[in-house]
Design goal:
It is a single chain. The chain has 5 helices and 4 strands, in the order ααβαβαββα. It is of the alpha/beta class. Strands 1, 2, 3 and 4 form a 4-stranded parallel sheet that branches. The radius of gyration is 13 Å and the shape is globular. Bound molecules: flavin mononucleotide. Flavin mononucleotide (FMN) binds next to strand 2.
Amino acid sequence: MMAEQIKAGAEAAGKDVLYCNIADGNCDASEVLGCDLMILGSPAMGDEVLDDPMEAFFSGIEGQISGKKIAIFGSYDWGDGQWLRDWSDRISDAGATCVNGDGLKNHLDEIDDAACKALGAL
Ligand SMILES: Cc1cc2nc3c(=O)[nH]c(=O)nc-3n(C[C@H](O)[C@H](O)[C@H](O)COP(=O)(O)O)c2cc1C
């Protein structure tokens, strides 16, 4: 739901969008790496961790993101966004820029459409 709003915001801002769902196995890592801005999303899972399939996908590109711009988002329930803060730190440690700081988090399905659209327009 967040991704769809982000996509809508990006399209409204005239961006050329590559939209793919890692869970469907239809994300080409090299195509994603070629984007001016990668907006990656995954919910809080495990115990405040980034879980598969995003963990596997991100681990695969982590060594190739130096110098790139990335934004992150996801939904959570009982936590406070630790998985996004840790993900943002990993992005910085890899030499990339997390352009939306500690990420955009929405509680469960309480989607902030305006915040998602604004992220897409970056
Ligand atoms: C196995 C499991 C682990 C979870 N771990 C966390 C967690 O550590 N922190 C948190 O805030 N929410 C946690 N959640 C809640 C999910 O992040 C939340 O329900 C989220 O909205 C799920 O997004 P999705 O519907 O896109 O999968 C967990 C949910 C499940 C099923």
